[in-house]
Amino acid sequence: MKKLLAVIGIIGLIAVSATAFAHGPGGLDRGYGACEGYGACGGPYGSDNKFLDETSDLRKELHEKKFEYMEAVRDPKAEDKKIAELEKEIDELQDKIHEKAPKRAYGRGYGRRGGYGCRW
């Protein structure tokens, strides 16, 4: 009985340790530093609610398209044409969002194309 409890305890300890290691050395930080999602950046995204308000519908549509894309990818009956079409729509939505992103004084934007700020 004591051996069984010891084995269960060791397995539990390994399971808890594995979850800690799964997050890596930065904990839940995924390499974005202080920029963890919309409105979390200390820069223009955190203080510029205008950007978030202007892109609300686009971000919602992007989220729905990403969900639709993931469902199509996991469906073995989905056509490659449909998946490629969804990828193109997602890319276009992301471009529209990035076009509305605040710009730096010297003309370079934030995000995907500009190389600064948060990524989404």
Task: Give me a quick take on this structure.
By secondary structure, the chain is mainly α.
Note down, in words, how this protein is organized.
The chain has 120 residues and is mostly helical. It folds into 2 domains: 1-31; 37-110, Four Helix Bundle (Hemerythrin (Met), subunit A). Helix content is 58%, strand content 0%. It is built from 5 helices and no strands. Helix 4 (56-74) packs antiparallel against helix 5 (80-99). 7% of the residues are buried.
Key traits:
Four Helix Bundle (Hemerythrin (Met), subunit A), elongated, 5 helices, mainly alpha, 120 residues, 0% strand
Number of helices: 5
- Average of per-residue pLDDT values: 74
The Cα radius of gyration reads 21 Å
Spans of 5+ residues with little confidence (pLDDT < 50)?
A: 28-42, 112-120
Helix/strand class: mainly alpha
Largest sheet: none
> How many E strands?
0
Number of domains: 2
* Helix content bin: 55-70%
Span of the ends, CA to CA: 51 Å
H-E order: HHHHH
CATH architect. name of the largest domain: Up-down Bundle
Task: Write down the CATH class of the largest domain.
Answer: Mainly Alpha
Proportion in β-strands: under 5%
CATH topology of the largest domain: Four Helix Bundle (Hemerythrin (Met), subunit A)
| Overall spatial form | elongated
